[in-house]
């Protein structure tokens, strides 16, 4: 999937730590993320960039999320964009108010990144089915993200969790070269201390699992730069 085809999610939240966590996890799962820190900004960005979905916090400075939601629904440019409200409030009355103001779904804080991504996919599947694609393809390699399965040429490929994330990353960015540092950051995460040569170890495992004797090696080693996923025949 090229980056222009990835669904754009607008994150509207004023708490920087949460914004960072949300954007990081969405991008890691194959979405693009745009962010707005208050309602005014959110309304502008929604009209200009027409995101595929808006994650909207209830508690925002100046204008409440509820009011932002109502205004988004009044503007023809943003009327059809699905909205998931994020909130610390769990009471039934608030839930009803949120949904009445035009939200499509509602997530109560605290939530796990996995739960959030699942809800985003569920809403997108309903509102724009082609965007919720959970299968990545590259040449003869098929990656089913939801089922956590990989097949090549009809045969099952068994990967460990790190190799799975590595492959997903390459399949989401085919042709692009990533340095070992970038791969550590993007696949292992920001706060993990791992030696650079660990990347080589997992690339080796990924190659071994992916390539049968007659298969083309799709992982290209770029000397002194890193790795990329390429295929002559793709
Ligand atoms: Ca907030």
Protein model, in words:
This protein is an alpha/beta fold. The protein folds into two domains: 3-132, Response regulator (Rossmann fold), CATH 3.40.50; 135-229, Arc Repressor Mutant, subunit A, CATH 1.10.10. Helix content is 40%, strand content 20%. The protein has eight helices and eleven strands. The strands form three sheets. It has a five-stranded parallel beta sheet with strand order 2-1-3-4-5, with helices on both faces. A four-stranded antiparallel beta sheet has the order 6-7-8-9, with helices on one face. β8 (149-152) and β9 (155-157) form a beta hairpin. α6 crosses α8. The protein is elongated. The mean pLDDT is 87. The structure holds calcium ion.
CATH topology descriptor of the largest domain: Rossmann fold
Determine the strand fraction and express it as a percent band: 15-25%
Task: Give the domain tally.
Answer: 2
DSSP, total strands: 11
Cα-based radius of gyration, to the nearest Å: 20 Å
Biggest sheet character: 5 strands, parallel
Classify the helix fraction into a percent range: 40-55%
Q: Which CATH class of the largest domain?
A: Alpha Beta
Taking strands numbered 1, 2, ... along the chain, how are they ordered across the largest sheet? 2-1-3-4-5
This entry's quaternary arrangement is single chain
Q: Name the bound molecules.
A: calcium ion
CATH superfamily of the largest domain: Response regulator
Query: What is the helix/strand order?
Result: EHEHEHEHEHEEEEHHHEE
* Shape, per Cα inertia axes: elongated
Termini separation: 13 Å
CATH architecture of the largest domain: 3-Layer(aba) Sandwich
Spans of 5+ residues with little confidence (pLDDT < 50)? none
